[in-house]
Design goal:
3 helices; five-stranded antiparallel sheet; rod-shaped
């Protein structure tokens, strides 16, 4: 072996051209992957708000069922909104009770009850609002949960 070949092999490392090629490849990969990753993040955030809304709906149905069992006449059709309890119940804040039971960090804006069943609920986590609406009152199957939730960003 010649002395030049030995010196080159002993030094090791990469040439400037090799480093530039590697950086160019990494830049191309990054430009392709960043939009894809952003889409995954947005989808995950949307699924998170739907899950939180689902927890709020379950908590609301629990509170409504408890009160409907005690007083079906008044709890048949109710609209619960912040600061305005139902006409027949002045001292209790049912939205606060639902909020506590659901263990969510956002705010429940409104709950609509028809025949003792939660048919609509609006949940806001500050950035995104998710609205639940039951597709039909006769439906006992909750298989198609996604069709009952509408997600919109707050502007």
């Amino acid at each position: 072996m010649s002395k030049k070949a030995c010196r080159r092999r002993d030094r090791g490392g990469f040439t400037l051209v090799e480093l530039i090629v590697v950086l160019a490849i990494l830049a191309i990969l990054a430009t392709l992957l960043i939009p894809t990753m952003t889409g995954y993040i947005d989808k995950a955030n949307e699924e998170k708000i739907v899950a939180e809304t689902r927890m709020a709906v379950m908590a609301a149905q629990t509170v409504v069922s408890e009160n409907y069992a005690r007083d079906p006449e008044n709890w048949g059709n109710v609209e619960l909104t912040p600061g305005s309890p139902p006409d027949f119940q002045e001292d209790e804040d049912f939205l606060e009770e639902i909020q506590t039971l659901s263990e969510t960090s956002g705010d429940i804006q409104s709950v609509t009850v028809v025949n003792g069943k939660v048919t609509a609920l609006s949940y806001d986590n500050g950035k995104v609002t998710c609205k639940y609406h039951s597709s039909s009152e006769d439906s006992e199957s909750d298989e198609d949960v996604e069709e009952g939730y509408t997600v919109s960003t707050n502007d």
